[in-house]
Inverse folding.
């Protein structure tokens, strides 16, 4: 696959379509099984609170993966992401109810680079708090 977005059609400030990603306790259990990360802060409320967390929290790598979906959906090609990095600023707290949590992601083109690449800056929020800082991806466009 190659990116469906053309470099010439993108300007600095171009906003990518925003997206929201629901996270429930069941989501975290499935992710733990797939990733092998069975740290009890991600599924055991009692343990999470004993170590000072407000409740069970989402896996950082899961949060990071959900956020980059905004970029991969935009390009149409997950392989178009050539660099991606974040700082984890706040946890995604996932209550034990029918709703769970919501990760809300926005992104925009922050810079046009050489070789038909762009830098995309992402903002990921949950419960009104920024959960990822310095979230940036370099994307190879067509």
């Amino acid at each position: 696959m190659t990116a469906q977005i053309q470099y010439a059609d993108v300007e600095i400030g171009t906003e990518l379509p925003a997206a929201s990603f629901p996270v429930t306790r069941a989501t975290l259990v499935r992710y733990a099984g797939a990733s092998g990360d069975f740290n009890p802060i991600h599924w055991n409320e009692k343990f999470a609170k004993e170590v000072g967390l407000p409740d069970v929290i989402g896996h950082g790598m899961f949060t990071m993966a959900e956020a980059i979906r905004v970029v991969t959906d935009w390009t149409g090609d997950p392989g178009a992401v050539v660099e991606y990095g974040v700082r984890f600023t706040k946890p995604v707290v996932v209550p034990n109810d029918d709703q769970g949590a919501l990760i809300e992601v926005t992104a925009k083109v922050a810079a046009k680079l050489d070789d038909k690449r762009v830098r995309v800056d992402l903002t990921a929020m949950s419960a009104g708090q920024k959960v990822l800082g310095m979230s940036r991806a370099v994307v190879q466009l067509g």
